[in-house]
Amino acid sequence: MIRRLLQRRRYMREHRWTHAHLSDYVDDDLSPHERERVEEHVSICPHCTRVLRTLRRTLQSLMDLPAEPHPSVADGVIERLRRER
Fold first, then answer.
1. pLDDT digits (tens, 9 = 90+) for 25-38
2. What contacts 24, CB < 8 A, 6 or more positions away?
3. What is the spatial distance between Cα 60 and Cα 52, in angstroms, rounded to a whole number?
4. What is the structure's pLDDT at 70?
5. Cβ neighbours of 24 (radius 10 Å)
C-alpha cells in the first residue's frame, strides 16, 4: 500500500512538472535530461499526451496563418477552430 502511494505521489509530481514544461519541450528549450523526462511521462499519461498534441496543433495552425491578415481574419480563425474540433 505504501509503495502504491509513493508511486502515485511520484506520478503526480512528474505530471505537474511535465505539464508546466510542455511549451519549453515544443520550443526545444529543455536539456536532454529534461526532454527525456517529458517524453517518459507523456508516454504513460493520456492527459499530457492530449495537451501536447493540442499545443502542437495550435502552434501549427498559427504558423499556417497568412502573413498578411485579411479583413475577416478573425472569422476565418474561428471557423477553422470550429472545423478542427
1. 999 999 999 999 99
2. 30, 34
3. 12
4. 63
5. 14
Domain count, the chain: 1
The reported pTM is 0.69
- Residue by residue, DSSP assigns 5-70 as HHHHHHHHHHHHHHHHHHHHHHTT-S-HHHHHHHHHHHTT-HHHHHHHHHHHHHHHHHHTS-SSPP
Distance between CA atoms of residues 59 and 53, nearest Å: 10
Domain extent at residue 6:
2-84
DSSP-derived secondary structure letter, 1: -
